[in-house]
Amino acid sequence: MTWGTELWDQFENLDKHTQWGIDFLERYSKFVKERLEIEQTYAKQLRNLVKKYCPKRSKDDEPRFSSCVSFYSILNELNDYAGQREVVAEEMGHKVYGELMRYSQDLKSERKQHLQEGRKAQQYLDQCWKQMDNSKKKFERECKEAEKSQINYDRLDNDINATKSEVEKAKSQLYLRTHSADESKNEYAAQLQNFNGEQWKHFNVAIPQIFKNLQDMDERRTVKLGETYRSFADVERRVIPIISKCLEGMVTAAKAVDQRKDSAIVVESFKSGFEPPGDYPFEDYSQNLSRTGSDNTISTPKNEGGVKPDPKHSISKTAKNKLWLFGKKPKSALAPSLEDFSHLPPEQRRKRLQARIDELSKELQKEVDQRDALNKMKDVYEKNPQMGDPQSLQPKISETMCNMEKLRSEIHKNESWLSEVEGKVSTRGDRRPSADVNHHAPHGRESPEGSYTDVPNQEHRSPPHQPDPRQAHQPDEFDDEFDDDDQLPVIGHCKALYSFNGQNEGTLLMKENEVLYIIEEDKGDGWTRARKQSGEEGYVPTSYVEIAMEKNSKDS
C-alpha cells in the first residue's frame, strides 16, 4: 500500500504525521542524551570515590599487608570499571545521540523539501482552477449581455415607433455581444480542458510521487530508530567482557588476602631486636634492722660492713625504660625522626638504612648512565663539530659529576651507619652524631657525615682581602684540611674565568674555562676551596671563578 494512491487527499494529515515522526526521533535522542549523562555522572562519582580512598602516597606509605594490597587492587579495578562506563557514555554520544541528531536535521530538510513541492503543485492546480473559473464567469456574463441585446433588438424591431437608426444600433450591439459570448465560450472550453489535464496530472502523477517520497522518508526514519535501538544495546554489550575482567580482578584480589603473610609483616615491621627483660631480683630493705624476734622468724643475713645491694641486681633506669614495649611509650620514643634512624630499634634501623642505600645506589647508577651518555655525545660532537658544540655539554657533565659526588658521600655515610648497626667496627663511629648522646659539638666546620671538628682555627689563609691575581696564595697551614681521608661533599660548581698557576702549597692549579667542584665556600678571605674531576683539591681565588651553588646548599 502506497500513500500516493491510498491517501491522495490527506496532504494535511501526512504533514502532521511526518512532523510527529521527527518529534519522536528527537524525543528518543533526548532520552539517549540523558542516559549518557547518567553514565558520565556515575563514572565521575566512581572515580572520585576511588580517588578519595586511594590518595597519592609516597614510597614509604606503600601498602604491604595483603588486605590493603587487595583493597587497592579492587580500587584499581573499580577505576577501570568507571573507565568502561565512560566508554559507554562516549559511544552512546558518538554512535547513537550524535547520529540521531544529524539524521534528524537531514529529515527536517528532506520533509521541508517534499512538502514545499506538494504545496507548489497544489498552488499551481489552484491557479489553473481560478483561470478556468474566471473564464467560466466571463462566458456567463457575456451570454447574459448577449441575451439582453437580443431582447432589446427584438423589442425595437417590433416597435413601429422606433427609428431605423435605433434598430440598426441595437442590431449592431447584438452582433458584438454575440461575438464576445462566442469568444468567451471558446476560452472557457480551453481553460476547462487545461484544468482537467492539470488536475489529472496532479492527482495521478505529482501528488503520488510526493507522497511516495514522504512515505520512503518516514520508513527510513523507522528503520533508523531500530538501528539506534540495536546500537544502544551493542554499546553495553561490547564493554561486558572488560567489565567481567574487572570483576574477576576483584575476586582475584579478594582471594589474595593472606592472614599469615600479614601477621609476618607485622612481626617484620615492629620487631625491635631487643632481648626480653630478665627476672628482677629481690631487694631487701630490712638488712639494717635489728633482729630480736623468735627463732621461727625468717631472717635475711646482713650485709657485712653495711654494703649496699649489688647494683647488678638493682632495677636500673634503662631497664625500666624498656617496659614501654609492654605499656606506655616513653616520651623519648616519640622524638622526631633522625637522619641516621638512631631513634629506631636496631632491626628497624637496619632495614631503613638498607632501603635508603638501595635507593641511593639506583640514583647513582642513573647519574653514571647519564654521565656516560653525555661523554659519548661530547665525543660525537668533537668528531663531528657540525652536529653541535662539545663545550655546551660541559655544564651538564659538571652538574652530573656533582650529583655523583653527593650521592657517593650519602651512600658512604649510610653504609657507615649500617656497619655500626650490624656490629662492625666503624672507623668514624666517634664522629657520627648519635641520638643517645646529649652533648653539643663545638662550633666548627661540618664533616661529610654531619659531625663537627672541634679544632679551632684549623685553617690559616691569607688576610681577608681580595687576593691579587698575580700573587699565589700562601696559606700557613693546610694539614688539618687535607689529611682527613674523607672527602667533603660537593656543594656547587664553578668555571675558571682566568688561569691560576697554583704554585703555593694548598692552592690548586686551574686553566681558563675549566670546570671545578666547590666543596667549601669563601669565608670572606677571597679564597674558595675546590676539587678537580681527578679528585685533586685546593684553594683558588674567588675572583677568578664564576660560581654556581646547589639549591640544597643554599637552603642550608
UniProtKB/TrEMBL annotation:
Residues 418-448, 457-476 have a biased composition (Basic and acidic residues). The keyword Cell cycle does not apply. Residues 489-550 form the SH3 domain. Residues 477-487 have a biased composition (Acidic residues). One of its GO terms (biological process) is signal transduction. GO terms for molecular function: lipid binding. Keywords: Cell membrane, Coiled coil, Cytoplasm, Cytoskeleton, Endocytosis, Lipid-binding, Membrane, SH3 domain. Residues 343-420 form the REM-1 domain. Pfam families: FCH (PF00611), HR1_TOCA (PF25610), SH3_1 (PF00018). Residues 291-315, 418-487 are annotated as: Disordered. Residues 146-173, 350-384 form a coiled coil. Residues 291-302 have a biased composition (Polar residues). Residues 1-262 form the F-BAR domain. It is found in: Cell membrane; Cytoplasm, Cell cortex; Cytoplasm, Cytoskeleton. GO terms for cellular component: cell cortex; cytoskeleton; plasma membrane. Belongs to the FNBP1 family. This is Formin-binding protein 1-like isoform X3. It comes from Salmo salar (Atlantic salmon).
